[in-house]
Automatic annotation (TrEMBL):
GO molecular function term, any single one: nucleic acid binding
Positions of region (Disordered): 1-50, 120-169, 202-232
InterPro entries from the UniProt entry: R3H_dom (IPR001374), R3H_dom_sf (IPR036867), R3H_sperm-antigen (IPR034068), SPAG7 (IPR017330)
Ranges for domain R3H: 46-109
Pfam families hit by this protein: R3H
SMART domains the UniProt entry points to: R3H
Basic and acidic residues bias (residue ranges): 21-50, 120-156, 202-211
Protein name, UniProt field: Sperm-associated antigen 7 homolog
Gene symbol of the encoding locus: SPAG7
Length: 232
């Protein structure tokens, strides 16, 4: 019985030593610090968001402003600012080559940046609309000149000799033959040119006049013959 009790007591968990108690204490303190840091981070994020909401609201209400540029900030702050801008109906972009220099710019919807303006900010340049317009015109002019240079020079095609002068004797003979053939065809099929129709009407009028004179003369002759028979 004594042996059984001894084995049971020896198998029971031994009380923690002084070293174990110290480790547990440090773990509890570390967990408490971590929780406090998380609460502080959460509080700071809430305060920063509240501050950005106020600034964004002032920016929207100021009719003289079209865009707003912020100083470089961390990734978490940029994320919060982008979210606030989206909720407010603004357009936002981040610019900057490295993480330390990245900043946020806000734009009102009616003044959204063009691709050229965004490209200038990405290059770290200030945006100047007048200079941009000058650069755009220079690019267009250069593109037109390049296109003109690629196209071969077009010259008007001209025959080595004057075809009509060279073959004028043949053309004249052929034209005369064509005219004679056309006239013969018109006479054969009753096709009379307009000019000939005018001449034909004139001839018909003349023939009618001649026929009328003949009838008149014949009538006079008949009356004269009748008079002679009566007197005899």
């Amino acid at each position: 019985m004594a042996d059984l009790l001894g084995s049971i007591l020896s198998s029971m968990e031994k009380p923690p030593t002084v070293g174990d108690q110290e480790s547990r204490r440090k773990a509890r303190e570390q967990a408490a610090r971590l929780k406090k840091m998380q609460e502080d981070e959460k509080r700071k994020k809430a305060e920063f968001r509240k501050q950005m909401e106020k600034e964004v609201s002032n920016f929207i209400q100021d009719s003289t402003l079209q865009k707003k540029k912020y100083e470089p900030m961390g990734k978490i702050e940029r994320s919060i600012l982008h979210d606030v801008a989206e909720v407010a109906g603004l357009t936002s972009f981040s610019f900057g080559e490295d993480e330390e220099s990245r900043y946020v710019m806000l734009f009102k919807k009616e003044f959204a940046p063009t691709d050229e303006e965004l490209e200038a900010y990405r290059k770290g340049e200030e945006w100047d609309p007048q200079k941009a317009e000058q650069r755009r015109r220079l690019k267009e002019q250069a593109a037109l000149e390049e296109e003109a240079a690629r196209q071969p020079e077009k010259r008007p095609a001209s025959p080595s000799s004057n075809y009509r002068d060279k073959y004028s004797h043949l053309i004249g003979t052929s034209a005369a033959k064509d005219a004679a053939h056309t006239l013969q065809a018109n006479q054969t099929y009753g096709c009379v040119p307009v000019a000939n129709k005018r001449d034909t009407r004139s001839i018909e009028e003349a023939m009618n006049e001649i026929r009328a004179k003949k009838r008149q003369k014949k009538g006079e002759d008949d009356r004269g013959a009748g008079s002679s028979g009566t007197s005899s």
